[in-house]
Amino acid sequence: MDWAGVATFNETVASSVLQTVETGPGAVQSPPAATLASPHPTLAGLYDSYAQFVYRSLISLGVPASSAEDAMQEVFLVVHAKLDTFEGTYYKAWLFRLALSIARNARRSSRRADQSVAPVDPDSLEDSRGGSPFEKAAHAERIQLLHQLLEQLDDDKRQVFILSELEQMPQVEIAEALDIHVNTVAYRLHAAQDRLKQLLQRFHARAQEKTS
After folding, report:
1. Structural domains of the chain ordered from first start
2. Which regions in the chain score pLDDT beneath 70?
């Protein structure tokens, strides 16, 4: 599989999230329902269902794209070794916790300066609406901007924001993934949204200064 396209956020979701940060939430939407773990999943089933999620998570946690596929295989090697003894509630949350551990190890051996997100290639983005090259480029710029803004958040806020807003993971699953209370999830998400709004306002102000 070509993992390059998976490394970027879905363009529709990312653009919508960035617009929400900028203008504030519109109509209140019901949170996604938590998905209970299947009683007897197979390694192949988990890989088919969550490999892309694990790969995106590793990228968002600072693993360079050049190492992300190897890191993803490490995650599923751990899954293979521990699947029979899994005692959690949500497999997706468990996979994120494993990805978080692998990412920490990877980051110890690589300087953060070498882990910046690569520029988004518009041609790698899925566009179900069949937009023009100009529209694709505009969406790619917004996704890249969102990546850059997220890099300026503290790790705890960034993790919660990505899982909630970009991966649409319910807060109860996020709490299990990060081993924190669900109220802490809500607090960090609110703090992340406020900080991102400040960063976005600062970005627009600087852009305005350059054009004036």
Report:
1. 41-111 (1.10.1740.10), 145-212 (1.10.10.10)
2. 1-15, 22-39, 107-132, 134-136, 138-139, 212
Q: Which amino acid is at 25?
A: P
The DSSP letter of residue 8 is: S
User: Is the full-model pTM beyond 0.70?
Assistant: yes
Q: Answer positive or negative: Cα dihedral of 73, 75, 77, 83.
A: negative
Residue range 111-124, pLDDT digits in tens:
544 544 444 444 44
Residue 208 identity: Q
The helix (H) or strand (E) run that includes residue 146 is: helix 133-150
178-212 burial, b if ≥16 CB within 10 A, otherwise e?
bebeeebbeebbebbbebbbebbeeeeeeeeeeee
